[in-house]
Design a protein that fits this description.
about 25% helix; Arc Repressor Mutant, subunit A; 3 helices; alpha/beta; single chain
Length: about 170
């Protein structure tokens, strides 16, 4: 009997950075090692530790069961502890997720941002003022350390208006 397919986890906000590097010191092997923190693990830590929500509240926001949220959160804390204790770099990427609102990515600087003013059209990146903007409606990442499969809907810099429910069909 094969396991159930993994349900997509809802991420409200993508991370503002893509990772952390250790400062000073040397690793045992002498080469840079990394811990890969998946987007859903980042989101669980953000909700539980930064937003101070309990596991039930965080699980409702991420659209997963409470036991699933607890497992995701425990994995995230284990990875962060490993990186801190052993001096490894933390890279935030991967996982099986979707964003719950209309998000955009700047193809110039790689910045992710949303459109808080739905009536206004997105014409430039808020960070670098670049004009190469793509719609980032839903992105599915496989659960490997590197992104394998991205479902990106590339659009021109002109934004199409429409309601986005954020629910996976």
């Amino acid at each position: 009997m094969s396991p159930r397919p993994t349900r997509l986890r809802k991420v409200s906000n993508p991370p503002v950075i893509s990772g952390f590097k250790p400062y000073g010191g040397k690793t045992k092997s002498g080469r840079a090692e990394a811990v890969f923190l998946h987007f859903e693990e980042y989101e669980a830590v953000r909700l539980c530790d930064h937003e101070s929500l309990n596991h039930h509240q965080a699980s409702v926001i991420m659209d997963v069961s409470r036991p699933t949220l607890t497992r995701i959160y425990a994995r995230a804390r284990q990875k962060i502890a490993d990186a801190l204790v052993t001096g490894k770099q933390i890279i935030i990427e991967g996982g099986k997720i979707y964003f719950d609102s209309e998000w955009f990515v700047c193809n110039t600087c790689g910045c992710y941002f949303n459109n808080p003013f739905k009536q206004e059209e997105i014409s430039e990146c808020p960070l670098c003022k670049g004009k190469k903007i793509s719609n980032y409606d839903k992105v599915t990442y496989e659960t490997e350390e590197h992104v394998i499969n991205k479902n990106r809907k590339h659009e021109s810099s002109h934004h199409q208006h429409g309601k986005h429910s954020g629910k996976q069909a």
